[in-house]
């Protein structure tokens, strides 16, 4: 990730009299920002300003004023200092949700990445010839919106409707996909179903970019298929796999769609099942204290946790890379 | 230089494109341009507006035709009630909210507290007689009116009479003990005459408990919260016995398995809100058609024949409305379009006209005039006042109710959790709670 | 400029050649490398099983889209509830229900989604690649800070920014316009990141230098040389942004109130979120029809995005 940047050396032969270097640097500075500007402006509008707003609002709570049982019919922002943050970090519901999401990440991400890798390797091996159908079939779920995917799977988990549950029952296996200890795996399955094909395609692309003569050489050395996979293919997709891993970690920490839809069939999935759900429900007032202030505080703490995780991951990655 | 020029050109192209796109729909939100004496009213709703119904826009078009000086524009919100409140809250702050919006009775005090409603008592008075008194009072907060009631959700009992007869249950049991005995008897032959719906606990069970008395009272300026009333205890006891005996289904109401239990004929009776009638018709797929009936609740929860509310909505006038008088005038007209509202699957709160049972329900319910039953139930509702922030209580109750289905919790826990959540919510809103 | 074209053409040729060699060699691998029949059968069996896993839910959804609510909960989930002869009627009925629920706006919403996704992916890809190129090739002041901030924002749950975004867009009088969807959707830190990686790995500095010596302006270099090299990579970013915009419903839920401006996911969400909605067959039909344009796009651009993925994957 640390790129060696090329400093453009301007061939400024005709600009005698001025210090070359600073002129070039100035020019580079200007050009760089010019290219950066369109994204930068949009980015400020869509990310920076809202984040500043979120940070600002996290120091406030919305309370009634004017007395009476119903208040004066107006909520006002009351500055509460760090009280919202204190609420978040001392909230058992928040940590339970965070724990759940971490557990989910711990199980789902490796399973998905490893399956994607194995599938990519199999498709890239010479064992099967016509891979286009497989490739597309695996990838198709990515095109299904998350909410719709969740709805489909909820049906397939449902004991009274699902042909899967019925088939399993027919051969003597009784499963309840909504049982307390299984429901999280059911959820992970939806994510895995949606994104495995996408990751597989990335890995497959990396594999297919490996120069063919590497294989030839290995073969001449007498390596078998597994050895080639391990010694040549794996190292070549490592970078892609590590990146996919990082992105998946960040994505699963924000887990929302799957539990939200599954809650329809399993009311045991609470409003604070994941930090993301907790934040949204807090902002809508179905959790108390409600409102934008506490919701922002949840989002900020959550982003910090995700940041720490990503940093730890990047650090470990670098350590491993150095070895 | 050429670079900069190019960039400018590029930006200009993007901007032009954007303007063009912006032009596609920028004029949709302006609510009150009344330059030529015409008052424009906007109305946001969450009615189903489905196939075969009289569409809201068609109803509104009738009004617009007859009232050239008050033109109404209805928009349907495509999201959950909680999503809509959140959106309206932001809209009100920015002064761009519609004049009128659909608000559930349970959420009305909350929406008031959030500063989204306008006091329209002076206009509401004259329309009071057009609506049943119970729902009308639910549109009020602290004695002031904020809109007019649209539909109601009295809890009633739906059951399959023929299946009951087969089991040797001649009529709907009237006492708790009789009911539980009958339920056990039915369960023994794989039939269920009651459903326990964890995802509706907050709405339905509060209504059932409310049949015999409210939870939230105002004393002075403080709230007196008691969710563990005798009625609550009776409800807890009733359902706990059914659950312990495995004599009630536990499918969540909005899970497809609930529909399946009606279709396969295993669920032959349950408490439900009046507005669920058309849902029974479609979910059943014809199972038991002609045999289903609607009855009033028995005295199962110490409710002495009374019932409680589950759902139902008012249409409220939002704070940013500049034309509350005209909005109310339209609203009174709209909420009394009884046949049109019935077509949307509502049990209208209006008393100006008798709602007729739609013919497509008639067959399923064996020709019974179920609208009459609903009206009776409507007139027989216990007083139940909702507190501000009730949606948090509902969420907590549902969560706790789910634990009772697998035995990891008890039904009575729902009410103790409701108590703590209610008190917390009120306190977090900065309202005072009496000890 | 001509150098660049030549180079990319050469690269494409090399790739095609590699593919051909691969195909050929698949047939004449040395005996020791030829997989045994057993290995081949097991592998194919595994791949087919996995394929079933990925396609079965979609198959089920297709079957379900022809059913009435009561047919969904009863009967065989694996096959149509009615005979083949009655199938067109069943489909027509659910289609009518779908159009009824969407108040006849279904295809309009699909068209809206196409506009939202297409335009924001287009703009988004361009600005992301420009920014990625800027950070990859120019040492401007504050560059590292900019990279840090943007990457940091990848960690921010985008959904939670929707409400402040709404407030800001409202202040700019942009709510309930197409722009209120397009602007937020065309900014993607991930797109920026990909653009940066692609620019780092596949734009040779020598080429830029050479072009500069030829006297080309920076804009000319970017729009004629760099964009061409990055084209396959841009397809990947485009598709990523396209799908992300297509699937977003929280943003339009807040921003859009006019029926005529809704995207199709919002309409579908509206159906699901209405507690009284039970016609899930019609919903499935809507979901499938709504996804169709995305699938067509993927199939149509298949050649390009696979090349793009390859470009990004090599040194991700």
From TrEMBL, chain A:
Cellular component, GO annotation: plasma membrane
An annotated GO BP: transmembrane transport
Gene3D superfamilies, per database record: MetI-like
Domain ABC transmembrane type-1 per the UniProt entry, residue ranges: 98-313
Principal place of residence: membrane
Keywords for this protein: Cell membrane, Membrane, Transmembrane, Transmembrane helix, Transport
Biased composition (Polar residues): 1-10
Location of the protein in the cell: Cell membrane
TM ranges: 33-56, 101-124, 136-156, 236-256, 295-316
Family matches, as InterPro entries: ABC_transporter_permease, MetI-like, MetI-like_sf
Membrane topology: Multi-pass membrane protein
Annotated spans, Disordered: 1-24
One Pfam family this sequence matches: BPD_transp_1
Family affiliation: Belongs to the binding-protein-dependent transport system permease family.
Designated name of the protein: Binding-protein-dependent transport system inner membrane protein
TrEMBL record, chain B:
Signal peptide interval: 1-22
Protein name: Male-type abc sugar transport system periplasmic component
Keywords, comma-separated and alphabetical: Cell membrane, Lipoprotein, Membrane, Palmitate, Signal, Sugar transport, Transport
Species for this entry: Bifidobacterium stellenboschense
One Pfam family linked to the record: SBP_bac_1
UniProtKB/TrEMBL annotation, chain C:
Major subcellular site: membrane
PANTHER family: ABC TRANSPORTER PERMEASE PROTEIN MG189-RELATED, ABC TRANSPORTER PERMEASE PROTEIN MG189-RELATED-RELATED
A Pfam family recorded for this sequence: BPD_transp_1
Gene Ontology cellular-component terms listed: plasma membrane
Domain ABC transmembrane type-1, chain residue ranges per copy: 110-301
Keywords in alphabetical order: Cell membrane, Membrane, Sugar transport, Transmembrane, Transmembrane helix, Transport
Source organism per UniProt: Bifidobacterium stellenboschense
Compartments reported by the entry: Cell membrane
Keyword Cell division belongs to the record: no
Membrane topology: Multi-pass membrane protein
Gene3D superfamilies: MetI-like (1.10.3720.10)
TM regions (residue ranges): 41-62, 114-133, 145-166, 178-199, 220-246, 281-301
Protein family (similarity comment): Belongs to the binding-protein-dependent transport system permease family.
GO biological process, alphabetically ordered: transmembrane transport
Protein name, entry field: Malg-type abc sugar transport system permease component
InterPro entries on file: MetI-like, MetI-like_sf
Source organism phylogeny: Bacteria, Bacillati, Actinomycetota, Actinomycetes, Bifidobacteriales
UniProt KW Transmembrane keyword: yes
């Amino acid at each position: 990730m640390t790129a060696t940047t090329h400093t453009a050396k301007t061939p400024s032969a005709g600009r005698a009299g001025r210090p070359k270097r600073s002129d070039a640097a100035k020019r580079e500075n200007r050009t760089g920002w010019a290219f950066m500007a369109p994204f930068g402006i949009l980015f400020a509008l869509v990310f920076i300003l809202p984040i500043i707003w979120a940070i600002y609002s996290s120091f406030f709570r919305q309370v009634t004023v004017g007395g009476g049982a119903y208040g004066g019919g107006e909520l006002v922002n009351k500055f509460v200092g760090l009280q919202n943050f204190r609420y978040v970090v001392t909230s058992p519901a928040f940590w339970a949700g965070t724990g759940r999401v971490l557990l989910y990440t711990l199980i789902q991400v490796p399973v998905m990445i490893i399956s994607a890798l194995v599938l990519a390797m199999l498709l890239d091996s010479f064992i099967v010839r016509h891979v286009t159908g497989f490739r597309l079939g695996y990838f198709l779920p990515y095109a299904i919106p998350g909410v719709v995917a969740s709805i489909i799977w909820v049906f397939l988990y449902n004991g009274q409707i699902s042909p899967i549950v019925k088939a399993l029952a027919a051969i003597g296996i009784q499963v309840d996909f909504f049982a307390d200890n299984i429901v999280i795996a059911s959820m992970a399955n939806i994510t895995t179903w949606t994104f495995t094909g996408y990751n597989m395609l990335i890995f497959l692309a990396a594999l297919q970019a490996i120069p063919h003569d590497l294989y030839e050489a290995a073969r001449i050395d007498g390596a078998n298929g597994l050895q080639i996979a391990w010694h040549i293919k794996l190292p070549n997709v490592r970078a892609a796999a590590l990146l996919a891993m990082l992105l998946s970690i960040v994505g699963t920490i924000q887990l929302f769609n799957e539990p939200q839809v599954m809650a329809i069939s399993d009311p045991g999935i609470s409003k604070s099942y994941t930090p993301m759900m907790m934040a949204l429900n807090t902002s809508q007032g179905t959790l108390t204290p409600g409102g934008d202030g506490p919701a922002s505080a949840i989002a900020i703490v959550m982003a910090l946790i995700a940041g720490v995780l990503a940093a730890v991951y990047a650090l470990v990655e670098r350590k491993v890379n150095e070895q | 230089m050429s670079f900069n020029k190019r960039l400018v050109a590029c930006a200009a192209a993007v901007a032009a494109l954007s303007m063009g796109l912006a032009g596609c729909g920028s004029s949709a939100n302006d609510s009150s341009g009344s330059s030529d004496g015409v008052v424009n009213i906007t109305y946001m709703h969450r009615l189903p507006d489905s196939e075969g119904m009289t569409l809201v826009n068609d109803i509104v078009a009738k009004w617009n035709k007859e009232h050239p000086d008050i033109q109404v524009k209805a928009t349907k919100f495509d999201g959950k009630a909680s999503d809509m409140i959140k959106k309206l809250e932001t809209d009100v702050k920015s002064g761009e909210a519609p004049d009128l919006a659909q608000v559930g009775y349970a959420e009305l005090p909350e929406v008031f507290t959030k500063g989204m409603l306008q006091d329209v008592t002076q206009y509401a008075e004259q329309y009071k007689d057009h609506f049943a008194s119970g729902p009308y009072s639910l549109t009020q907060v602290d004695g002031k009116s904020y809109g007019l009631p649209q539909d109601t959700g009295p809890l009633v009992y739906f059951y399959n009479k023929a299946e009951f007869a087969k089991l040797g249950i001649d009529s709907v049991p009237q006492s708790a003990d009789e009911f539980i005995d009958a339920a056990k008897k039915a369960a023994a032959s794989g039939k269920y005459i009651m459903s326990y719906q964890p995802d509706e606990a907050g709405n339905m069970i509060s209504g059932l408990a409310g049949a015999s008395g409210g939870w939230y009272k105002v004393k002075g300026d403080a709230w007196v919260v008691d969710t563990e009333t005798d009625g609550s205890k009776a409800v807890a006891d009733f359902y706990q016995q059914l659950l312990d005996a495995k004599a009630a289904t536990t499918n969540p109401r909005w899970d497809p398995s609930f529909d399946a239990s009606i279709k396969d004929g295993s669920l032959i009776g349950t408490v439900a809100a009046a507005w669920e009638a058309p849902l029974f018709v479609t979910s059943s797929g014809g199972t038991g058609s002609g045999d289903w009936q609607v009855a009033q609740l028995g005295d199962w929860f110490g409710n002495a024949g009374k019932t409680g509310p589950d759902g139902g909505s008012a249409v409220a006038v939002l704070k940013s409305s500049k034309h509350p008088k005209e909005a109310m005038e339209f609203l009174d007209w709209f909420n009394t379009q009884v046949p049109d509202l019935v077509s949307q699957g509502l049990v209208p709160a209006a008393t100006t006209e008798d709602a007729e049972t739609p013919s497509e329900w008639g067959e399923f319910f064996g020709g019974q005039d179920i609208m009459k039953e609903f009206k009776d139930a409507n007139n027989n509702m216990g007083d139940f006042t909702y507190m501000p922030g009730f949606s948090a209580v509902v969420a907590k109750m549902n969560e706790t109710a789910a634990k009772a289905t697998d035995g990891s919790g008890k039904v009575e826990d729902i009410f103790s959790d409701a108590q703590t959540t209610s008190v917390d919510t009120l306190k977090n809103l900065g309202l005072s709670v009496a000890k | 400029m001509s150098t660049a074209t030549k180079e990319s053409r050469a690269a494409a040729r090399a790739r095609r050649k590699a593919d051909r060699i691969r195909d050929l060699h698949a047939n004449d691998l040395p005996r020791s490398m030829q997989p045994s029949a057993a290995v081949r059968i097991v592998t194919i069996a595994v791949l087919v099983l996995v394929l079933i896993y990925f396609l079965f839910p979609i198959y089920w959804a297709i079957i379900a889209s022809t059913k009435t609510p009561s047919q969904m909960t009863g009967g065989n989930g694996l096959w149509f509830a009615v005979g083949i002869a009655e199938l067109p009627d069943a489909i027509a009925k659910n289609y009518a229900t779908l159009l009824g629920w969407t108040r006849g706006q279904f295809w309009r919403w699909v068209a809206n989604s196409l506009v939202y996704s297409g335009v924001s992916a287009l703009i988004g890809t361009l600005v992301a690649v420009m920014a990625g190129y800027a950070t990859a090739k120019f040492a401007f002041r504050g560059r590292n800070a900019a990279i840090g901030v943007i990457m940091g924002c990848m960690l921010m749950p985008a959904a939670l920014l929707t409400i402040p975004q709404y407030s800001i867009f409202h202040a700019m009088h942009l709510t309930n316009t197409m722009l209120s969807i397009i602007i937020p959707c065309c900014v993607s830190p991930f797109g920026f990141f990909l653009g940066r990686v692609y620019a780092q790995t596949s734009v040779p500095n020598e080429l830029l230098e050479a072009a500069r010596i030829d006297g080309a302006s920076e804009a000319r270099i970017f729009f004629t040389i760099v964009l061409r090299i990055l084209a396959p990579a841009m397809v990947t970013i485009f598709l990523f942004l396209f799908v992300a915009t297509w699937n977003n419903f929280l943003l339009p839920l807040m921003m859009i109130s006019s029926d005529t401006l809704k995207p199709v996911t919002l309409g579908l969400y509206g159906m699901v979120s209405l507690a009284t909605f039970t016609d899930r067959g019609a919903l499935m039909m809507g979901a499938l029809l709504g996804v169709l344009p995305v699938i067509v796009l993927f199939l149509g651009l298949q050649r390009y995005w696979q090349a793009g993925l390859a470009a990004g994957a090599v040194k991700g």
